[in-house]
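Hi C.,

You asked whether I'd gotten around to modeling the 194-residue construct. I have! Everything is below, sequence then structure, no commentary in between.
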Amino acid sequence: MIDMKPVTKAVAMKCPCCSTTLMNIHSHRTEMVHGGFLFDDGDSIGGLWEKLTDEQKTTQKFDYQMLVGNCPNCGKSYYGVIASFMAGKDEYKGPWFGYDDTTIKQIYICTTDNEKNGVPESWYCEEHETPDGLFHMHWFGLFQLKSKKGVVGPAGVTACGPNSNSAWKHSADVLVALWDDLRKPFMNKSKVDA
């Protein structure tokens, strides 16, 4: 079970290597401390789809990625995991499921009693309002990327085969452990066409 509490004061997202604050998370927005972007590149998480049951692959729209960035202070690499969910069975339409208005309704700090498979103690979730209803984007991490081998290649961040690097495996394991709870708010809420 996931407990979601609204962010009421700024929370710092820090580099997992040197603890430099990279981003501040507010109740309705995020703010990069050093300008630029938190991540440089990302890709879908190889190996996750195969770990989901047929039932878990249905019912709502979802997307999942592992993203990689570099700390402007220490220069070391880190990664984060994003899992997005929304009611409906329509095909994926791109970032934020095709919605240009990415206004954040509320940001939550999430916790769970699920301590298996490297699930972090807490993470945050952006809640957006769209024409089709609520949309949640869960952000896990940041985690230290100990090796770029099997993660970053000539074409950027690429899932070079399922579980080709422990970061890919960790990302898939976290989402598999929480998958049913992450999608629970969207179960039985698919948009019905008249």
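If it helps when you're writing up: Residues 166-183 form the longest helix (18 residues).

Thanks,
B.
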